């Protein structure tokens, strides 16, 4: 291929990608020289910060309910037993270990659950 054909093919592929991106929406803005330019909108994040916070709060409440229903000592022995297992079980034990916030909330919720 000649240089002009390669440049044309590259420009054509860039235009096709931009056109496909603009099918999801676009915004227009005016440059200082007066030319109106359309730019594709960014795709929204697949996972929002709000959903991450909700997941973390639900996980914390799960730990609180387990700790309050089993008791702090029994919960710690089960987590210690989990730490002796496979790599996946060790990761689960790391996530499920009792932190001060979980212990505090579990102590206040324990009388309600019993």
What can you see in these coordinates?
Keywords: Membrane, Transmembrane, Transmembrane helix. The chain crosses the membrane at residues 52-71. With 114 residues, the chain is mostly helical. It has 2 domains: 3-40, no CATH class; 49-113, no CATH class. Helices cover 68% and strands 9% of the residues. It contains 5 helices and 2 strands; from the N terminus they run αββαααα. It has helices at residues 3-22, 49-70, 72-83, 87-96, 100-113; strands spanning 26-30, 36-40. Strands 1-2 form a two-stranded antiparallel ribbon. Strand 1 (26-30) and strand 2 form a beta hairpin. Helix 2 (49-70) packs across helix 3.
Global outline: elongated
**Helix percentage:** 55-70%
Helix-strand makeup class:
mainly alpha
Number of strand segments: 2
First-last Cα distance:
79 Å
SSE series: HEEHHHH
The overall pLDDT average reads 90
Biggest sheet statistics:
2 strands, antiparallel
What would you report as the Rg, rounded to the nearest angstrom? 28 Å
Beta-strand share of residues = 5-15%
């Amino acid at each position: 291929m000649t240089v002009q054909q390669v440049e044309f093919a590259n420009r054509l592929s860039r235009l096709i990608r931009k056109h496909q991106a603009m099918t999801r929406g676009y915004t227009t803005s005016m440059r200082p020289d007066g030319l109106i330019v359309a730019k594709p909108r960014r795709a929204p994040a697949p996972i929002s910060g709000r959903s991450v916070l909700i997941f973390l709060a639900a996980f914390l409440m799960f730990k609180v309910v387990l700790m309050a229903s089993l008791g702090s000592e029994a919960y710690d022995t089960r987590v210690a037993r989990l730490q002796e297992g496979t790599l996946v079980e060790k990761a689960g034990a790391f996530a499920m270990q009792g932190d001060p916030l979980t212990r505090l909330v579990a102590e206040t919720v324990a009388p309600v659950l019993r």
